Amino acid sequence: MRRQADPRFRHRGSGGPVTVVARSLHARLYGLPTAPSPLPTALDELLQVLGTARDGDQKQAVLVQLADQLRNAAEILEWARDNARQLPAPIWEWLRDATDTTRHLADGLDSVRPSFAAPQAPAAPLPPPAPAPPHAAPARR
Known about the structure:
There is one protein chain. The protein is an all-alpha fold. The protein has helices at 18-30, 43-52, 56-83, 89-112, and strands at residues 4-5, 16-17. A two-stranded antiparallel sheet has the order 1-2. The longest helix has 28 residues, at 56-83. Residues 107-141 are annotated as: Disordered.
């Protein structure tokens, strides 16, 4: 568990890791450029960042981070599968499938990520559907 800095002096911040606060203070005192804060690794914090992301680059960065987290999860699942003792065959296969699915999700995020960077062109309206041909009534016998 990381040490957290408490908010002090009626500052509106919520605190944070001590090292981040110290780096920020050091940069302000000596006029150094402050580096942009890295994306969080916790999924709930990543979701919060996505809610405040304004441009495509920020959204892409969130998707990159999520894909990395999914790849890490796949590694954990693979480790669990390979290091468990005496797994029944159905459970071993389930873990293998879960690992493959998790990797597939990460690859899918990589493939859709560029769509967040390109400006969205207005969609052309669809033409009205062609009228359906009239149905002939079934012949009576």
